[in-house]
Amino acid sequence: MTQPDLFQYETRPGAEMPALRAESPELADARRKRLLKKASKAASAVFSPPVISPDARWTLPALALHGIAGEIVREIEPKTEAHPAALLVTFLTAAGNILGRSCGIFAGNSMHHPRLFTAIIGATSKGRKGTSWQAMLPILRAADEDWSQRRIQHALASGEGLISAVRDPAPDDEDDLGEPDKRLLVFDEELGRTLGLFKKADGTLSAILRSAYDGNTLSNPTKNKKQTATEPHISIVGHITREELTKSLQETEVFNGLINRYLWVLTKRTRCLPETPPIDPDFAAATSARLCEIIEWARVGRTLTRSPEAASQWDSDYVELSDYGEKRAGVYAAVTGRAEAHVTRLSLLYAILDCSPRIELCHHLAAMALWEYCDRGARWIFCHGETGNPDADKILTALKLNPEGMSRTQISGEVFKRNASAAVIETALNLLESQGRAIPKLIETEGKSTEIWKAL
Questions:
Q1: Most CB within 10 Å of its CB: which of 81, 181, 195, 354?
Q2: Is 236 exposed, middle or buried (0-12, 13-18, 19+ CB in 10 A)?
Q3: Rounded Cα gap, residues 328 and 3, in angstroms
Q4: Buried b (16+ CB within 10 A) or exposed e, 19-30
Q5: Torsion of CA 409, 410, 416, 418, to 10 degrees
Q6: Alpha-helix residue ranges (DSSP H) falling in 323-360
Q7: Would you give the DSSP letter of residue 59?
Q8: Residue 167 has what pLDDT?
Q9: How many CB atoms lie within 10 A of CB 229?
Q10: CB within 8 Å of 296: residues ≥ 6 apart
Q11: Strand, helix or coil at 421?
Q12: Which residues contact 151 (CB under 8 A, 6 or more apart)?
């Protein structure tokens, strides 16, 4: 989309060049501030995200409701206030954790297992995020009672605690036999609080979560003893509101590769049910029995491949998925930058739930449909202006108006009217520098150095 020129000069009738006039420093400064205020108000209109119709945000493609996962969602959805997308990803994430690491698919030299990190985002505090979990739990519990009692952890407190839950036997402590079951589902109802833990300078949680998603050996030497966890299989279902997310998300975590390991799933309350109807007991029993059969089938251990039809479609879709970073900007590009891995793991999971030894076209199309829903939600949540960060957009607009550059003091006073913290400004400036949109320079004035930021 061609962006309109924010900074147009008025010309006199018949003149080919803008009419210029000399201004005193005071008038020039006042004029610059007026232009800055006007440009800041116009920035959101000029750098607007792609338009998504309200209906499209909440429409889950029917192709995503494939197999047993789709049957469960269709049966439960009319009897709950939860959105079908929340029900679907809750089931897929939990089922993928129950299935463990026995089945996988190679992507290059890396083996992907049915391990998902999902963040269910309520448009408001009444998005009925938790309802999806309560609706799915009885069926999951009947399929694997031991898993439901022992391998579900509520909340994330620290990286050390996560490793301890899937730790190996301690070589120097014969009483510590470790945890033989490496499966762990983290049900994090306070994902906003967890994001806040990433701000701790000495926190290891972010790095450990990245390794856990990849399925790598986890290790964290503590002051007391070193713990190691080999072949972990950790999945996450997180809940957060849009307001909490935009308030607590730190750009450092966006661009260091943690946030794009999550599937961001938009949800809302779909109906008002003063009393929740029970699930048909015959359906619940039959479905749990089918899940038990699927679990037994998966325990054999299989390396899946794509069928010729699925492989052909994957080749075509891969080009689009892998170009996300080049066609998008800012936070939106960062959080959707792992699209290929998400689609691969989803298609693998759909195939395992069908007890299929290979990924068929229907499994790939189901994965793509669910990814497209998540992508639309991410666009609505994260797509802010030119940089992906509204504070960075304001600063960038100001720097373009001031080619001589601005100090942090000027940015704080003129752009934010001293209503933004130093941390907020630091985050925005780091983002501008990382995107190659602005750069700091040290200017020597009166025997001291001043940091001046200039737009590139």
A1: 195
A2: buried
A3: 16
A4: eeeeeeeeeeee
A5: 40
A6: 324-327, 330-335, 339-353
A7: -
A8: 95
A9: 25
A10: none
A11: coil
A12: 97, 181, 183, 184, 185
- Which residues lie below 8 Å from residue 153, measured CB to CB, with a gap of 6+? 165, 184, 185, 186, 187
**What is residue 441's DSSP assignment?**
E
Q: Which residue carries 């009393």 as its tokens?
A: 275
**Whether 90 contacts 130, CB under 8 Å:** no
Q: How distant, in Å, are the alpha carbons of 41, 394, 402, 424 from that of 411?
A: 16, 9, 11, 11
CB 369 within 8 A of CB 61: yes
Whether 368 and 257 have beta carbons less than 8 Å apart is answered as: no
Q: Which of 281, 284, 352, 271 is nearest to 71 (CA)?
A: 284
Per-residue pLDDT tens digits for 302-326:
999 999 999 999 999 999 898 765 5
Min mean pLDDT across 30-34, 49-53, 247-251 is at: 49-53
The pTM of the full predicted model, rounded to 2 decimals, is: 0.75
Helix (H) or strand (E) holding 119: strand 117-122
